Amino acid sequence: MVALGLGACSATDAGDTAASGNVTATLGDPNPQPIALEPRPTLPVAVRSFDGAEVMVQDVSRIIAVDRFGTLAQTVYALGLGDHLVGRSASAKIPAIVGLPDVTPNGEAMSVEAVLALRPTVLLTDTTTGTPAVFAQLRAAGVPIVHFDPTRTIDSTSPQIQAIADALGVHDQGAALARRTAAEISTATATLPAVDRKPRIAFLYLRGTALTMLAGPGSGADALITGLGAEDAGTAVGLREPFVAITSEAMIAASPDILLVMTDGLESIGGTAGLLALPGIAQTPAGRTRRIIDMSDSVLLSFGPNTGRVLTALRSAISR
């Protein structure tokens, strides 16, 4: 018997007793609560960028924040500097900033022209959103660029908040936001019950039937699933890459109890029926019980100031 909450579990007859049906995990307000209103940055600040460069930030009046998870833009907003944001990546879609220009028109690749058109005083990014040639062009045009670690884990959430705050000259606000976020994460994970067997969750990245991927180690989803007190199916089955194409063999071997997906991704393949039609999905314990949890693309893997709230919402969805 497998109870697909985070309560007691054992390993037999999963399909007979598991909860079934699609559940949407939600946050009451997907916008993080700003830690301060109109903070006054202390500038200039010298910053050691993640790529090793020394960067002098002298003006944060026009900030562009670009990374594949939307973490940087969310953090800028939560620091109280949302009014200073002038551009974002496609993944930064919380309601408060979704109206800002997207400088990654192809989904991940940064456009030099789109960035320069916004006249940024500083660009916050990571190493996944542009080629060295793109960053060289932007630096040659006089744009200060601060890189941050692209790795997303629960343990790195608060340190990254502080690093972003320090780069923008709002150290004290960063410290306060990091403390608040750490406390929310601690609350969300402090009461994880002891289990005989952790539920196994597979995160699936879906963008229409032409792009269907199973997540593994380093995807970001693995850290979130571990934080829920569950087992990441891709890691457990021995995947070595962050994402691999969904195949019947991979899904049956992964044998997830629960499927975790982004809401827009689920819709892109035709909802639950479309998901169950993908190779191997219907043959998994999760497929047999239709145990599917979806959550908004804008918050699920953001690993920023909303992390504790995301964990709490997912735990609630799992326990239903």
Strand and helix map with partners:
Blueprint: H1 14-17, E1 21-25, E2 45-48, E3 54-57, E4 63-66, H2 71-81, E5 85-88, H3 112-117, E6 122-126, H4 132-140, E7 145-148, H5 157-167, H6 171-189, E8 200-206, E9 212-215, H7 221-227, E10 231-232, H8 233-236, E11 243-245, H9 248-254, E12 258-262, H10 263-268, H11 271-276, H12 285-289, E13 291-295, H13 307-319
Parallel strand pairs: 1-13, 4-5, 4-6, 6-7, 8-10, 8-12, 12-13
Antiparallel strand pairs: 2-3, 8-9, 9-11
Helix pairs in contact: 5-6, 6-13
Tag the structure with descriptive keywords:
single chain, 320 residues, alpha/beta, Rossmann fold, seven-stranded mixed beta sheet, four-stranded parallel beta sheet, 13 helices, 13 strands, 34% helix, disordered N terminus
